[in-house]
Amino acid sequence: MSGVLRAIELRDFAIADAVEVSLRPGLNVLSGETGAGKSLVVDALALATGGRADAGVVREGADSALVQLHFEHEGRVVTAARRIVPEGRNVARLDGEVVTVAELQGALDALVGIFGQHAYRTLLDGQQQRLTLDRLMSPAGDAALGEYREAHLALGEAERALRRLETEADERRRRLELLQHDHAELEEAALRAGESDDLDARLATLRQVDRIRDGVARALDALEGREASAVATLAEAQRAVDLVARHAPPLATLARELREALDGAQAVTTELEAYLDDLEADPAALDRDEARRALLDRLFRKHGGGEAATLAEGTRIVTEMRSLEREDAERVDLEVERERLARARDDAGATLSRARASAAASLAPAVTETLHELALPHATFSVALEPTQAPGPHGLERIEFRFRANPGESEAALSAVASGGELSRVMLALHAVAGSDRPVLVFDEIDAGVGGRTGRALGSLLHRIARDRQVLVVTHLAQIAAFADHHLLVDKVYADGRTHARVRSVVGEARVGELARMLAGDDGPTARRHAEELLALPR
Question: What is the pTM of this model?
Answer without folding.
Answer: 0.67
